[in-house]
Amino acid sequence: VVLFQFSPLGERVLRHRTLLLERIGAFLEALPRVATYAVEWRDPAMLGDDYHALLAAAGAVHGYCAHPRMPALAAQCPAGGPRGPLVLRWLLGGGRAYDEARAAFAPFDRLVEPDLPVRDAVARLAADAAAAGRDATIIVNNKAEGSAPLSVCELAREIAGRPGGP
Predict the structure, then answer these.
(1) Rounded Cα distance, 122 and 72, in Å
(2) CA geometry: angle 58, 18, 24, nearest 5 deg
(3) Alpha-carbon gap, residue 15 to 36, rounded angstroms
(4) How far is it, in rounded angstroms, from Cα 92 to Cα 101?
(5) Among 13, 91, 106, 133, which is least packed, fewest CB within 10 Å?
(6) Beta strands in 1-135 (DSSP E)
(7) What is the pTM of this model?
(8) What is the C-alpha end-to-end distance of the chain, expressed in Å?
(9) What is the pLDDT of residues 50-92, one digit of tens each?
(10) Count of Cβ atoms closer than 10 Å to residue 67 Cβ
């Protein structure tokens, strides 16, 4: 998976959303078909039916992002549900900023703030992907719950316990 992550763009760029999407679509279509390409945003305004359609036309997928700036994971799905491989990053929970989460969660050796609703949403998307025979790539940050390895263990338990899970 090659993930193109766009940090918050601001109004100066977002007011040209249509042009930005056209350029990203052309860029994605020009890439060699040697990898799964995913696009991840920090601006909810970039999501929409036109965005998901351009990804489908280019053979790319949305990079789901569990982050306070973005809508819930289910709200990031295209109409008709996810297509292609699942690419998801669970980055930051609790409405915290990264520096605040780092200070609260260091040394990242325990689940300080388990985020059960997000964990459930990630597990649901992963189990659905598995049931549909789609690959899934999930990346978990220490700042999601306090310890990425422990979050991954809990997430694996949830996925395994769902229909379609391993």
Answers:
(1) 10
(2) 35
(3) 29
(4) 8
(5) 133
(6) 2-6, 37-41, 61-66, 86-90
(7) 0.91
(8) 21
(9) 999 999 999 999 999 999 999 999 999 988 888 899 999 999 9
(10) 20
